[in-house]
Fold this protein.
Amino acid sequence: MSGSRYRKGRLDEINMDNDYICFIDDNIDFSWKKKQVKDIIELIKKGATVELIADKYRRFPDEVFLLLLDLARKRKIDPDHNIFKLKSRSDR
């Protein structure tokens, strides 16, 4: 394995011998426009929540959460930001 301690997963390589598969949902839209992603990064920097972003872009909160998870893993947003609670005015 290269530099990462985590295995790179692919949907076509799901181990069906496992007892529980965490996430497969045909109803979730994983795609976003690059402009939306750029704008969402800025919203997160200003303290936006999953709910606020979901409402603004008319998306399911699950879709927003997965985008933010992806952005945090890629270090595009601060993974310590509480995406479920608005920052107080003193934190902004």
